[in-house]
Predict the structure.
Amino acid sequence: MGNSSAATRAAPDVHLGTLVLRDLPAGAVAALVTLSYSISYAALIFSGSALEPFLSSGLHAALIAATLQALVVALTSSLPFAIAGPDSNATAILAVMTAGLATAGSASFVSGERLGPTVLLMLAVTAVLTGLIVFLLGALRWGRVARLLPYPVAGGFLAGSGYLVVTGAFKVLTREPLSWRGLGALWQTPWLAVTVAFAVAAALLVLPRIWRHFLVVPGVIVAGFLLFYAGLWLSGESLEAARMGGLLLNPLAEGDWTLPWTPPGGPAWRQLIAEWRDFLAMVVVVIVTILLNAAGLELATRRDVDLDRELRASGLGNIVAGLGGGMVGYISLSRSLLNVQAGAASRAAGVWTAVFCAAVAFVFTRGIAFVPRPVLAGLLLYLGLALFREWLWEAYWKLPLREYALIVVILVLMAAHGVITGVAFGLVVASMFFVVSYSRADYIRHNLSGSLHRSNKERSLEDMEALAELGARARALSLQGYLFFALASSLVETCRELIVRQSVRYLLLDFRMVQGLDASVALSFGKLHQLCVQDNVTLALSGLRPDLERVLRQIRFLPHDEIHVVPDLDRGLEWIEDRLLEAGDGAGARGRSDVRRLLAPHFGSDALDVLLSVCEPVELRKDAALIRRGETGDALYFVEHGELSVLVTLVDGTVKRVRKLGPGTVVGEMALYSGHPRSADVMAETDCRVHRLTADGFARLEREHPRAAMQFHSFVVKLLSQRLTASNDEIQALL
């Protein structure tokens, strides 16, 4: 009891230590980056002479979004380290919508005072509507579509995200966009800023690989702060001069914050509705980016992600943020990875991020003015370079050259034309790779010759010998996978080879293991039909599910008089065997109805007379039971004419036919020899006539007519040998 109490008392201390030592520093680091992004995004949206007066309100909208989205996603995401907030992809479209409002406002707004509130209303409305759509998609479980994302496309997206993060780091450091012309701004940036940024990035790239500890990232950031202020002190530059030079973040302007739902003079709904096209584009970008970010986090952190839950979490975050007057945002790839690298151990890190953002927005409005931009730039540079290292360097040694080249191309396209263009191109190329690779796959599971692989219909020894000779004319192809135009074309060529070079005249295509087919196979299947008609080949189809048959009817491959549809492979083989025997000039015993003629090749005349004298004929009507499972094995039966089926009942209650018996065969011999109960039911498929040899008659035959008994045993051995040989041939054909 004492140990249990001590353990109970120790648990809160451990939890509190986790909250303070790991989640608090990680949340602070994520908050710093979130604040930096949010401020820059607000400045982008509220840029231009018409909107700059409303920048302070825009900053609050961005910080409110960062606060509420970070809180909601931290509590509801499937990833305990998820960090959410405003993002560049959506912000770029919001900036376009804002520019459209500003242009329309110059002609339609009565006064410039309505422009700012209308933009704030637009930010809130788009956040709520986007949140509703995203949440609905998650509720409908559409997130699983992202599971179809090919690995190189995800890798290319991560590499492209690394480039976007590096460009963000360059802009934070130089306040200029990354471009060939803008590179000159780096040389005009103070040496202190460049030194601190690259020192922080280099330390974060190297130290975590040497020393794996959750305090490494926060320690490097603190060291970056100290290095910056030490350099600032050594240079003799004041804080105000550093702020004017862009080395420190600007403080937020103090002022009252009101919800944007009732702007002065009433909302300009006409101008807002006019931006519906850009709004739809933004919704698509948001959905794709959420799924890509979540899938990228799953890949980067090797943790399972519930994509539907991520859609619901980001959707709910946008609804709450919009109702609070914020802007669109969602789960962030870079900030979530940074949170992991900073040592986040639970959802509390995301909650701390929300707390810090709220504190800066409403309490410590001037505290942000002491955050060095170079440290933030170094953090972003580290994240971008880390993604480059994994997907441009390490991936080169792990992936095939073709897939690695696709990653590089996606990166280049994302850098030149944006995320959607790069990912869309990657999906198209990856799909082409898949088509080419899949078309080379083995779509034929089994290629079965009629001389080796037989149906479950047991025939007379003479018929089996005839089928061994005639069976080469028949071929059964057991197909597999998903059939589309490439595989269907290959199938036609395979059939042409069988027909032209191997003289196959009966062709059976089994679709039991085909997962699906589409209308693109119409041309190839049409060629197959023409080929069979031209060469007088009988074509049969088996194992067609309703969905497959529906497609074949849509492309007008069915129905055709020349094409025979049978329920399954076994019945298809049986149908072909019957046709082969009919075309074989009456080969074997097919069609004979005299039991004496059926058995004469295997017995002497006297022995056959004795055998038939101890047997009694039995007439069976169709569907009548000859043998019932569990009955005593007290007799065997010679089949004179008609057909019998051996049926077994499976565990789920379904009945399966395991063998079919025709004239000249024997049934029930195993139970008679072993004395065990019957193991299956035997039912008459047609009207039948059989000859019954009871156990007493069998004993009398052995006792009074040993020569006839020996011939009987020899006949049974031949039957069993034939069955064993057929089974071995079938096994070899299936290997």
The chain has 27 helices and 16 strands. The chain has a mean pLDDT of 82. The chain has three domains: 14-261+271-433, 444-582, 595-734. Residues 14-261+271-433 form one domain.
